[in-house]
Amino acid sequence: MMQSMLIIVVAPMLITAIYTDLRWSRIPNWLTFSAMGIGIVVQTWTDGLQGTLSSMAGLCVGMGLFLLPYACRAIGAGDVKLIAAIGSILGPSGAFSVAVLSVLAGGVYALGAMGYQWGIATTSKKLAFATYGAFVTGGSTGMGNLQLPFRLRYGLAIAAGTLLFLGGIQPFGGWAWHRIHLW
Fold first, then answer.
1. Handedness of CA 79, 77, 84, 146 (dihedral sign)
2. What's the whole-model pTM score?
3. How far is CA 70 from the centre of its chain?
4. What is the DSSP letter of 175?
5. One pLDDT digit (tens) per residue for the chain, 183 residues
6. What is the C-alpha to C-alpha distance for residues 32 and 43, in angstroms, rounded to an integer?
7. Nearest C-alpha neighbor of 158 from the set 90, 84, 83
8. C-alpha–C-alpha distance, residues 80 and 63, integer Å
């Protein structure tokens, strides 16, 4: 029952985020902030103060985990707000799980984009050269060769991570385990 409600709430948000990210390279504030509000209200309605705290903790966990990549310009602010909104709906362990799954999905997405852009053989050579440069020489030799001529839309990876979580891949606990117990 709760899983179905989560999907009903999250699916339209993810579809809209994917569309706007692909179309305009933006995830709008009206979408993320309204989703944060819905997450807080629903959690409060279902669990009272515990739900409010869980929702706020999830929002902070999601935002906190993606602030460093944002500061390094690896992702945009809309991506940070999207994972924070998802955290407000799923709680802290859900936010953490979705973040980990999103990073994994983002890696697959990046490898796929590199393979599409350069072909499998060239991508493999570039990755091997960059790995050698990073680990053997201790520098960033070859990292510039991995720069794609276009920006990846990380909203896709966040949506994939969320769908994997809602589909049952929950490495750090499911939605029922995200409650904060005060006493």
1. positive
2. 0.87
3. 12
4. G
5. 466 777 888 999 999 999 999 999 999 999 999 999 999 999 999 899 999 999 999 999 999 999 999 999 999 999 999 999 999 999 999 999 999 999 999 999 999 999 999 999 998 998 888 888 778 876 666 666 778 888 899 999 999 999 999 988 888 765 544 444 433
6. 16
7. 83
8. 6
Confirm if 131 and 72 have CB atoms less than 8 A apart. Answer: no
DSSP assignments along 105-169, one per residue: HHHHHHHHHHHHHH-HHHHHHHHHHHHHHHHTSSS-TTGGGG--SS---HHHHHHHHHHHHHTT-
Residues 15 and 115: their CA atoms lie apart, in Å, by 26
The tally of CA atoms less than 13 A away on the side-chain side of residue 112 is 10
Token pair, residue 26, equals 């933006």
| Residue 78 one-letter amino acid | G
Please report, as a single letter, which amino acid is at residue 93.
S
